[in-house]
Amino acid sequence: MDAIKDGWFSELSTLWPGVCLSLEVEKILHSEKSEFQDIKVLQTKSHGKALILDGIIQCTENDEFSYQEMISFLPLCSHPNPKQVLIVGGGDGGVAREVVKHPAVEHVTQVEIDARVMQVSKQYLPNMGVGLSHPKVSVFVGDGFKFMKEHKNQFDVIITDSSDPIGPAESLFQQSYFELMREALKPGGIVCSQAGTVWCGLETVVNTFNFCKNVFESCSYGYSAVPTYPTGQIGYVLGRKIERTNFKEPVRIFSEMELEKMGLRYYSPEIHRAAFVLPRFAQKALYGT
Ligand code: SAM
User: Catalytic residue positions?
Assistant: First the structure.
């Protein structure tokens, strides 16, 4: 079956067998095969432009803010002073755009494996791509797993904004990656990784959560609503090195005025707390209670 048929794109994947989301397409704005993956930008009828990698929706202009804000501010607001931040993946630039808004952040290092994703994003998705050109952001092209091996004791927060665990991102969903991230963090440092949804592939979510739990003193799973991700939800695994922490309670609480000034549309202290309240089946699967 073609991913684009009769004017509709369908997100077909073995990761969610038997079900998929479809978006009506007005125009294919860009299509290429890079060294690592198939890259497409679609003008959709309902969700603005959409970035598609290897047939999987990475972000749409209409709902990307939920994911980008949550994967950034859940860890940043759980850390007392997140000065040095590392982003792995994140080629569209949306996470970098959000991270630099936090007043404590002094410098962001970003490691993305595919230079073409960043170039395409700057060209077609400038509202996200803008993050990659911010003066506080240094971008490296390379494999996040390899980069992690070469950096020790350097970062306050590491955000892994990767594609799904098929293809180049596979190594970012292994326990050895969490071990390397621990070494790359300063004491008290925090990691936050894209970790799938509890509504499909619960086993993958539990595995990723356990890898994090086996390596870090504190570990939690939160989620947010993103209508164009599989099942309309996406999860985040958070871990903290050495210090025990209650991720449910943000240590940095932004006022309404600060949230407005930063242009945040999804994240708030209230939604931070709510993100970690799980339905009973997921709570049991992850925490056993
Ligand atoms: N928000 C998105 C999602 O959850 O679907 C992810 C967006 S971002 C575009 C994902 C990026 O991770 C891609 O640009 C991809 O090239 C990058 N990536 C995949 N594997 C990587 C690796 N091993 N090292 C660095 N970047 C990687």
Answer: 161
Give the predicted TM-score (pTM) of the model: 0.97
| 121, 162, 174, 181: residue to mutate for ligand 1 pocket, most atoms within 8 A of CB | 162
Are the CB atoms for 71 and 161 separated by under 8 Å?
A: yes
Q: How far apart are CA 161 and CA 180, in angstroms?
A: 16
CA dist 112 and 27 (Å) reads: 27
Q: How far apart are CA 244 and CA 227, in angstroms?
A: 33
Residue 175 has pLDDT above 60, yes or no: yes
pLDDT of residue 1: 56
Question: Considering the chain, what is the average pLDDT of its residues?
Answer: 96
Ligand 1 atom with the shortest distance to the CA of 121: 9
Phi, psi of 4 (to 5 degrees): -115, 115
The yes/no answer on whether domain 4-60 falls in CATH 1.10.8.100 is no
In this structure, what DSSP letter does residue 206 have? H
Indicate if the pLDDT at residue 171 is higher than 70: yes
In the chain, what are the domain boundaries?
A: 4-60, 63-287
Predicted-complex ipTM score:
0.98
240 beta partners: 190, 218
Instruction: Tell me, using a 6 A CB cutoff, whether residue 68 lines ligand 1.
Output: no
What's the pLDDT tens digit per position in 246-260?
A: 999 999 999 999 999
Q: What is the CATH number of domain 63-287?
A: 3.40.50.150
